[in-house]
Amino acid sequence: MRITIEGASEEFERKLLDLLAEHRHELAVTADTEWTVERAERYLRSLPAGARRFAEMVVVDGDGYADADTLRSILGKLNGPTVALSRAIPRGVKAGWWPEGTRAPVTVVYDPDNPSWQKAIGYEVSGENVPVFRAAFTRLSPCPWDGDAPSALAPAPAADGTGWAAMDDVPRALDILDEGENR
CB of 89 within 8 A of CB of 58? Predict the structure, then answer.
């Protein structure tokens, strides 16, 4: 018997996998270990800021590949971000965010001509995961507008879109000072 369940919540999936694990001797169970936008977003949210920026540089800035020297020149030592990336996978399995066997999205690239111990020459995300993680970064973005950000120096818009109107309710500095003196 083969059962395929699509569109189930992560909680339902976790409970079903727990039930199936109880009967593992009778069944062959495989879990969906592919990255989804939801899983990618949760993965990225679980990372410290430096590791998230590292992943963003590989996925968004590098379109799936970033040279290690470039990353080092911007982030400094890569030990912190790479350790955080590697620890996020088992932490997510333990928390039930993704199933056992889910592969790390960011992987190290070594020089194939030098098989001995060496520094990484780059980091990559597989081609099918780049759009998934790009969408997750978009969802994490606090930017509420499309296109270029509005200028912080532009006058605040009035109801008619022209700037501060004469009768807008904006406290003036002198009004605030007068209130303080009259108390």
Answer: no
Cα pseudo-dihedral 41, 43, 49, 50, rounded to 10: -120
Q: Is 176 exposed, middle or buried (0-12, 13-18, 19+ CB in 10 A)?
A: exposed
Q: What is the pLDDT of residues 82-130, one digit of tens each?
A: 999 999 999 999 998 998 889 999 999 998 888 777 788 999 999 999 9
How far the first Cα of the chain sits from its last, in Å, is 80
What's the pLDDT band for 174 if we cut at 50, 70, 90? very low
Q: Do 19 and 26 touch, CB atoms closer than 8 A?
A: no
Q: Which two tokens stand for residue 81?
A: 């971000």
Please name the helix (run of DSSP H) or strand (run of DSSP E) that holds residue 55, with its range, or none: helix 49-56
| Contacts of 10 by beta carbon, 8 Å cutoff, 6+ apart | 38, 96, 97
Instruction: Round the average pLDDT of the chain to a whole number and report it.
Output: 81
| Tokens 């971000």 belong to residue | 81
| Strand pairing class (65-67; 106-109) | unpaired
In three-state secondary structure terms, 84 is: helix
